[in-house]
Amino acid sequence: MFATLLLITGTSATSEPIEVPHPFSISRLEFDSEEDGLKLAWWIQSRTIMEEPDVAFVGEDLWNMTLAEAADAWPRLRPYLEGGFTLRVDGESWQPRFEEFMLEEQGATLYVEAFLPTEQRPQSLEVRVDHFFDGGNPDHTVDMEVRGFATETERWFLLWSKREAQFPILRDPNAPSPPSTFSQYFTKGRDHVLGGMDHVAFLAALLFGVAGLRTLLAAVTAFTVSHSITLALGALDILRLPLAWVEPGIALSISVALWLHLARSPVNARAWRVAFLFGLLHGSSFATQLRNLAEGEVTEKLLAFNLGVEVGQLFFVVPIVLAARAAARLLGPERMDIGRHSAALLLGGLALVLFGQALDSYTFLRTELLPESLRPILGALALAATLAAWARHRHDPQGRPLSPQVGSSLSLAALYLAGTWLGS
After folding, report:
1. In this structure, how many other beta carbons lie within 10 angstroms of the beta carbon of residue 326?
2. Which among 257, 249, 285, 276 has a CA at the least distance from the CA of 387?
3. Rounded distance, CA 226 to CA 154, Å?
4. Are 309 and 286 in contact (CB under 8 A)?
5. Buried b (16+ CB within 10 A) or exposed e, 6-30
6. Would 171 be classed as within a structural domain?
7. Same domain, 46 and 12
């Protein structure tokens, strides 16, 4: 039913390089203007530090650093962190010094602080940040809060394209008002879904188990409820699953949802069960963007981000549903079945590639014997073998054996990876 547009989606996905799923890279920076000086506090994701070439970090875990690893990197990390700031306090330059560091969230976050003593409360602050943008992650965001320069806490986001800010914020009375916190986190949620190949591919896999509006609503509702649970628990640091489990698990969820639905007719697939189960994993991934929430804004940020996620899902699902219904009337059942089958094979190949990339990027299951662009083939082969064994005596509702279809998807995945390797 939804095959035509899914076929187009699958084709475009294999014609351009697929990037390894990556969490939102964000650090939280706080300035507090106090009676006797200015305090700087900074929380940085460990993975963000590991990706910075100038730091040359060496560690075993891709996400969490040990105290020994951080201590070993500190002689290189400290000058990098200090040197990336250009600060002026009341018109005078200040170079912060980070005498020591702390590890938080089981090594997932590095914390540093500095203090500038003054004879009276600082009145103005100019900030420029150049960390991580050019070397480690150009999509890095600095979520900055500044207190004490205005009657209310001032908030600003520094990006690759806009690295400077001045406090108190000087506003042009004719300029539009800056986006609210709600608007900012709504946009984050929406863009995180639409910009994540793994999340979009999972939604596409769910559609293969949808027979009509009722089953579509059931699947979407189940996914919303489950990811909302783990999103809130993770954002509040009540329950945090290791990303080395979450990201490969999300990639795996695409294949599981797809092949379970292909083994049954959409009428019998009950997509809501798969949506609820794997929505828990997707919610844990969403929560990586909502660490260290300010106490007074927890509800607003969670609500805004979650609504953004839902709108992002609708932006993807609704056009597919409408286009598929129109195509079904024009093409007829036989051609729609051919299109649905082709789209499933393409999505199956994409799912294998994403799983192989996730294993290579987020776990220790990697090898230096293969070129980097070919390493995902090992994870893709392992998953394809497991799926083929499961599908050995299973058929789709049209009577086609599933095991050869898994092989076809593996061939597409191998062709893509080979093409990427040759192209590089």
Report:
1. 12
2. 257
3. 33
4. yes
5. bbebbeebbeeebebbebbbbbbbb
6. no
7. no
**d(C-alpha 138, C-alpha 15), whole Å:** 24
Query: Order of strands, edge to edge, in the sheet holding 125-129?
Result: 92-94, 85-89, 125-129, 164-167
Do 122 and 12 have their domain in common?
no
Question: Among 173-182, 391-400, 411-420, which stretch is predicted with the lowest mean pLDDT?
Answer: 173-182
Residues 191 and 218 in one domain: yes
H-helix or E-strand spanning residue 223: helix 213-235
Whole-number pLDDT of residue 176: 67
Write out the residue range of the structural domain in which residue 52 sits. Answer: 26-162
Greater confidence, 4 or 203? 203
Most confident listed range (171-175, 240-244, 360-364, 419-423): 419-423
Whole-angstrom CA distances from 263 to 324, 344, 385, 422 are 21, 12, 17, 35
- pLDDT band per the 50, 70, 90 thresholds, residue 406: very high
Residue found under tokens 């799926």: 387
Task: From residue 40, give the alpha-carbon distance in Å to each of 115, 125, 413.
Answer: 6, 12, 48
DSSP, residue by residue, 53-90 = TTT----S-SS---HHHHHHHHHHHHHHHHHTEEEEET
Closest to 146 measured CA to CA, from 189, 89, 101 = 89
Residue 93 CB burial class (10 angstroms; 0-12, 13-18, ≥19): exposed
Domains identified in the chain, total number: 2
CB 181 within 8 Å of CB 300? yes
CA–CA separation, 256 and 254 (whole Å): 6
List phi, psi (to 5°) of 314.
-65, -35
216 within some domain: yes
State the residue for tokens 């230096």: 368
- The amino acid occupying position 189 is G
Pick the residue with more confidence: 99 or 11?
99
The type of residue at 171 is: R
Query: What CA–CA distances, in Å, run from 260 to 5, 22, 159?
Result: 21, 27, 42
Same-domain status, 95 and 194: no
- Of 237, 226, 45, 59, whose CA–CA distance to 142 is shortest? 45
Q: Do residues 371 and 422 touch, judged by C-beta distance below 8 A?
A: no
